[in-house]
């Protein structure tokens, strides 16, 4: 049996005439929208406190209450929600005032079911476009290639990932930096039944405990200095979809009980607001650290770890899936020569051997960076070894502490690996514990 089609928008109807509420509701539910109704301003307010809506149809004449006041209240309680005013022909002037006060559009009563459906579709489409733009902005520089592999071990991991994607189990994705944990999380969201809903990422290391709480759960205007308006929070944005907690090892210890409660009970409060809310969110988390060790050191809660890793998927480092290097390199080359309009079309045999024999401490991210650079500097149709930016012993195997190496060689290899793993020079300098100008000088000195 085909699964029932998921509703693609949550709509609030506010009108004091119950016959209108009923007709509008039937009409919109036929289109698979999730509809709630309120016949007074106070009921609408209560619903807005409890749920997240994408769109509201608001009658401006609401018994005692002024529709414009209700609209103003809605802008405060749910600034993300589109509001379409429903008005009598004689009151179109007030509808125009309402648009100036933040409503998105108006419908003149009596309106046909078709007009209502078209209006809902138009508003929700606009919201989807905004969400899509935000999603794409978050993905700038990220590839969209599918996930596949020729390595049997990696194929088995991807098979399990596909299988468990359709369950609602929380998944912990482990793997060295740059192995594609974020890419796998996105793919698992797409493979799941939530695939058409939002995929929301929260990057744990970038936020303090206070900011993380408001980023996750939202806050009300005035909840803290600088909170200039109500915000929805990532958990509500991900309602019905997936929340990806990247670098969960850096999730603030003090906030872990609140995350645990949300995972267990699906309940949370916005900062500055005692109302308990609910959101239906599937959690994926990733880390390159050992959470088990962190639990032993008291830096991560054991109960949270158990909740997060209902299923654990561990991605292989690139050096353990050498079968994939050639195809990934070719895909990256194709993408970057297109983007930079440069002539390279393939690799010389020597260059391909070099790619295959390198140990890739920065994994797929490093490979991507190396090929991007090569695609820019190669003025021929074949990428040569010299374009790869490798030199000397780094080609063979990654040096390890304790190997027969000079300090200079070890330093060079370490800096090269950190650079390959970092998005920016500043980030690399921070990891290395030196300032960016020193790193810049060392790169030149070491010909990196
Ligand atoms: N299968 C793949 N095909 C193409 N590009 C990929 C693939 N896997 C990863 N990448 C690219 O490699 C880079 C690193 O991937 P991603 O951020 O998912 O890794 P990660 O393991 O989450 O890294 P970190 O632990 O540092 O956050 C990104 O640019 C990503 O787009």
From TrEMBL:
InterPro entries in UniProt: AAA+_ATPase, AAA_lid_NorR, CheY-like_superfamily, Homeodomain-like_sf, HTH_Fis, P-loop_NTPase, Sig_transdc_resp-reg_receiver, Sigma_54_int
Top-rank taxon, per record: Bacteria
Domain Sigma-54 factor interaction stretches: 147-376
Response regulatory domain boundaries: 10-124
Keywords, sorted A to Z: ATP-binding, DNA-binding, Nucleotide-binding, Phosphoprotein, Transcription, Transcription regulation
Biological process, per Gene Ontology: phosphorelay signal transduction system; regulation of DNA-templated transcription
Residues with the 4-aspartylphosphate modification: 59
One MF annotation (Gene Ontology) recorded for this entry: sequence-specific DNA binding
UniProt name for this protein: Sigma-54-dependent Fis family transcriptional regulator
Species of provenance: Halopseudomonas laoshanensis
Lineage, broadest ranks: Bacteria, Pseudomonadati, Pseudomonadota, Gammaproteobacteria, Pseudomonadales
